[in-house]
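Section 5: illustrative case.
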């Protein structure tokens, strides 16, 4: 019979294991009422202690109403060789443009103090927003193809979410919710600098 390894893998206690798995899968929003209440009222501290042992930081933004995990700086700076929670890939030019402009739209939406926290945009609105910033395409068809590809990629990152609409029948008019988790990756202080940079790059 083989001996049990000294360093056995950490396992989440049963009472918060489902929530730990949910966080490992992605962002938990305030709209996910049961998950959110369990997090902020019951399990936040033990979850912080649990994840820190894995080299992960639990970030909870009560004002914006979301929580997510990110690699701790210590884990990144040491030779622990921990696998990354999310793989880092440099954004393409088009992805960068769309992310920054979506972040600006979130900021405008917040200033208007509307009832909803996140704006909903049609593909046509996204097209109008990025057209001046995207590098020139040979044809409008190529532009729309590249835009849809970039939107799909940003959606895969969790910054956009498709909104079901019974009234939308046109193939090129899906609607998307701009997820506020984008604020955690592009803060207000850096937004204007990024906008200036992309404006310069497109001149």
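Designed sequence:
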């Amino acid at each position: 019979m083989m001996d049990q390894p000294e360093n056995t893998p950490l396992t989440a206690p049963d009472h918060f294991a489902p929530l730990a798995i949910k966080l490992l899968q992605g962002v938990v929003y305030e709209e996910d009422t049961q998950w959110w209440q369990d997090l902020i009222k019951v399990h936040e501290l033990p979850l912080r202690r649990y994840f820190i042992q894995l080299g992960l930081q639990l970030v909870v933004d009560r004002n914006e109403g979301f929580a997510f995990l990110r690699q701790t700086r210590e884990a990144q700076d040491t030779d622990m060789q921990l696998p990354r929670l999310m793989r880092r890939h440099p954004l393409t030019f088009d992805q960068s443009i769309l992310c920054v402009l979506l972040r600006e739209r979130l900021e405008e939406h917040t200033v208007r103090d509307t009832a909803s926290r996140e704006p909903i945009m049609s593909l046509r609105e996204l097209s109008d927003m990025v057209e001046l910033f995207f590098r020139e395409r040979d044809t409008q068809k190529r532009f729309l193809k590249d835009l849809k590809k970039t939107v799909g990629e940003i959606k895969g990152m969790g910054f956009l979410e498709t909104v079901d609409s019974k009234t939308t029948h046109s193939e090129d008019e899906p609607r998307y919710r701009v997820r506020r988790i984008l604020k955690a990756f592009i803060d207000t202080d850096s937004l204007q600098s990024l906008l200036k940079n992309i404006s310069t790059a497109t001149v």
